[in-house]
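Retry 2 of 3 after timeout on previous attempt. Resubmitting structure tokens to design endpoint.
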């Protein structure tokens, strides 16, 4: 056992009271965790869940609402060595999604957002982000990273002290919502989504009554999505496609084709997402699009039967 792994274990031991690493669920989640989901699994779906390990630690140890916190993700391979060979995917080394249990809080951040990636971060495979949790209660933290040509996702739960506390998610199946200056119509085919079967989600964007045709890529994809069930048992990160891109994507190897496809500089008004929901229940779908130089976060809920 090398020294850094020893330290890692110590960190786990020290923080185990407040941090829940999701190893138990990892095997069940593998199918739902890859960047782009297909019933036809690509070779990367065969990756063993214990092939890489991700551990979260936080400073301070107990996070309080309204106080800045540092979240540190330590990545290691099966033998416990730091995972040094992370590859950039979607323009970043590590993607971090944070959502509150009631889904009123959402953030998508990266270590790169807080300064350059240092040689020491790469060598130790320890990547920090900073975040101020606005309310107390339970949060899900999902991370995505790639090593070689394999994508990995891991999920953690953290409890934040302080009032007011976020409660459970409430069912809200509204299909027309406005986010910033974008009016969004959300629909699914089939309308009744069933577990284990692919559904196509379509977003139609309008602004001042007109279809929006100048959406912009965000981190090299037409849309970034984080899909989270109400019981926070999974974290699915996937990407939108433009209608018509799909035919190409589906000829591929069943992994994240959007990574290999050039996204037009401007597009709209529709973005499609192909998702296989792994189990019954309510899921919140956070979708992010670029428009006029900034990123708009959208949020819809689906009920999977
Ligand atoms: Cu990201």
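Retry 2 succeeded. Sequence:
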């Amino acid at each position: 056992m090398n020294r850094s792994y020893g330290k890692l274990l110590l960190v786990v031991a020290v923080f185990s009271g407040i941090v829940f690493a999701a190893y138990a669920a990892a095997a069940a989640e593998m199918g739902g965790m890859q960047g782009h989901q297909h019933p036809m699994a690509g070779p990367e779906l065969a990756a063993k869940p214990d092939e890489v390990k991700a551990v979260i630690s936080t400073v301070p140890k107990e996070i309080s609402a309204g106080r800045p916190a540092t979240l540190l993700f330590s990545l290691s391979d099966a033998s416990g060595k730091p995972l040094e060979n992370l590859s950039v995917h979607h323009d970043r080394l590590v993607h971090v999604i944070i959502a509150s249990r009631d889904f009123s809080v959402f953030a998508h951040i990266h270590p790169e957002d807080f300064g350059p990636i240092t040689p020491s971060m790469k060598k130790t495979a320890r990547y920090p982000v900073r975040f101020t949790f606005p309310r107390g209660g339970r949060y899900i933290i999902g991370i995505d990273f790639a090593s070689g040509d394999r994508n990995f996702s891991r999920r953690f739960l953290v409890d934040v002290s302080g009032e007011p506390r976020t409660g459970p998610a409430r069912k809200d199946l509204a299909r027309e919502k406005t986010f910033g200056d974008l009016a969004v119509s959300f629909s699914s085919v089939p309308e009744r989504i069933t577990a284990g079967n692919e559904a196509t989600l379509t977003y139609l964007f309008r602004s001042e009554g007109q279809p929006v045709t100048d959406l912009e890529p965000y981190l090299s994809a037409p849309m970034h999505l984080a899909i989270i069930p109400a019981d926070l048992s999974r974290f699915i990160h996937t990407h939108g496609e433009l209608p018509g891109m799909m035919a190409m994507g589906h000829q591929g190897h069943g992994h994240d084709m959007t990574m290999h496809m050039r996204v037009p500089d401007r597009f709209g008004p529709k973005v499609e997402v192909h998702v296989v929901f792994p189990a019954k229940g309510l899921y919140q779908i956070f979708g992010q699009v670029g428009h006029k130089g900034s990123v708009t976060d959208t949020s819809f809920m689906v009920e999977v039967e």
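Attempt log closed. The radius of gyration is 19 Å.
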